[in-house]
Amino acid sequence: MNAYDVAVIGGGPGGYVAAIRAAKLGLSVVLIEGSELGGTCLNRGCIPTKTLLNAAGMVETVRKAVEWGIGSDSITLEWSQMVAKQEKVVATLRGGIAGLLKANKVSHIRGWAKVVSAGVIEVSGTMGAETKVTSSKIILANGSKPFVPPIEGLEDVTYHTSDTIFDLDRIPNSLTIIGGGVIGVEFAAMFSALGTKVTVIEAAGRIVPMEDEAASRELAKALKKRNVTLLTGAKVTAAQPEAERAAVKVEQAGGTSVIASDILLVAVGRQPNLSGLDALPLAMDGRFVQVNEHLETSIPNIYAVGDLIGGWQLAHVASAEGLVAAANASGRQEKIDYKVVPRCIYTHPEIASVGLTEAEARDRGLQVKVEIYSLQGNGKALSMDETGGFVKLVADEKYGEIIGVTMVGPHVTEMITTASAFIHLEGTVHEWANLIHPHPTVSESLNEAANGWLGLSVNH
Ligand code: NAI
């Protein structure tokens, strides 16, 4: 029997980060992962998509280059090579995690964990061997899997989720995506740039409905320019095979239509992975494992983090929770400040936001004043020919405290941390307006927005 201070279940961005932090805090730690290290983010999510979105971005740049006097007679697209490149990136990062675990003396068991009772875990190894592990504390970081809605006939159709879409052997001619959330739009951006005819079917009135309305409008405009069909307020009521293709029946206010395409991708959200936890009488919060503010579940000494507990299903949130759970497993009493969670969508243009959107602030009854600065006046964006975007600043009307920022445009996912810092430090528009920003950069638009908010803008 192997006895540890902490057992972490799951090697994704919640779990491996928790394991290393717990080890750094002086605890003996075992990390149990049945599959590859890195979880969804590294193996089937953030990193593979960003690598292929980079390839898609290159194609767009080459296509546009001709307008700049740069000849590009023909572009060849080798999907297998793109996927191979992506796999190399993933393998490098996976190796990095294995190295970090080793360097921090975290034991790594490759197998599927079943928590038998608080402190006792049975692991079925991938080679069939069983191991028993005991630990004073357990951190559950089991993650999530794609949610597949009950659509009539869907089981008879070959469909993909974000788990399997990279197994495609070629770039499809046509792709229908059910769900216009983050996964839906990122794949729409990627495949439309690679020449696929993409249709997105979104139940809400607009794509990325959780983001600021103007941001979703700007992205919709950009996707339509790339020939993406966006059906909003649309519900898929049935699916059926049609020759080698997949057909879906779509109901909208205007009537019913049938859309057939080579590939169907279902991207309507994710659900927690609860396998291995059924013997535990965990209190649940809807579909998710309930935790208190210290990330402890209803069972003492068992903590849970990441997609298992719902909230923001983002890798960086899982990691932040992993750090807090590790600290608390070592006897501290830490909490997370969810007020400052940056959200990034890696489409073209990118969307990045932090804090409250204007609608959320008004719904909460906050007295806010809003300033929008369009990238059409930004020299760097103009020089890049990427002016489809803006900065939207939401600040408290009386004191100017920054409450939320939404940005759309090039590099905004890299810039949003400045906004996070202001919100974290309770900074004001006055302070932001006085901060010298480098010229020419897209980041100047943040400073322009702050000055605009004060009625003192020079450049707009
Ligand atoms: P999501 O919750 O972002 O979007 C799902 C969308 O599907 C929603 O807009 C919803 O209105 C729509 N929908 C639901 N049922 C539908 C139906 N039957 N027909 C048509 N539309 C329907 O979920 P998604 O895109 O699957 O992503 C899962 C999670 O992964 C999210 O929490 C997301 O934050 C995370 N993620 C984050 C990324 C990032 O940070 N860049 C990238 C990809 C995923």
Heteromolecules bound: 1,4-dihydronicotinamide adenine dinucleotide
User: How can the largest sheet be summarized?
Assistant: 5 strands, mixed, barrel
Query: Rounded to an integer, what's the Rg over CA atoms?
Result: 24 Å
Number of domains: 3
DSSP helix fraction? 25-40%
Q: Can you identify the CATH superfamily of the largest domain? A: FAD/NAD(P)-binding domain
CATH architecture of the largest domain: 3-Layer(bba) Sandwich
Q: How much of the residues is beta strand, in percent?
A: 25-35%
Stretches where pLDDT is under 50 for at least 5 consecutive residues are: none
CATH topology group of the largest domain: FAD/NAD(P)-binding domain
Coarse morphology = globular
Compute the number of helices.
12
Main sheet strand line-up: 1-2-3-4-5
CATH class of the largest domain: Alpha Beta
The averaged pLDDT comes out at: 96
What structural category arises from helix and sheet content?
alpha/beta
Number of strands: 22
- What's the N-to-C terminus distance? 69 Å
Describe this structure in words.
By secondary structure, the protein is an alpha/beta fold. The protein has 3 domains: 204 residues, FAD/NAD(P)-binding domain; 115 residues, FAD/NAD(P)-binding domain, CATH 3.50.50; 105 residues, 2-Layer Sandwich (Enolase-like, domain 1). Helices cover 31% and strands 28% of the residues. It contains 12 helices and 22 strands. A 5-stranded mixed β-barrel has the order 1-2-3-4-5. The longest helix is centred in the first third of the chain and has 25 residues. The radius of gyration is 24 Å and the shape is globular. The relative contact order is 0.12. The mean pLDDT is 96. The site of 1,4-dihydronicotinamide adenine dinucleotide has 25 residues, from helix 5, strand 8, strand 10 and strand 18. Its cofactor is FAD.
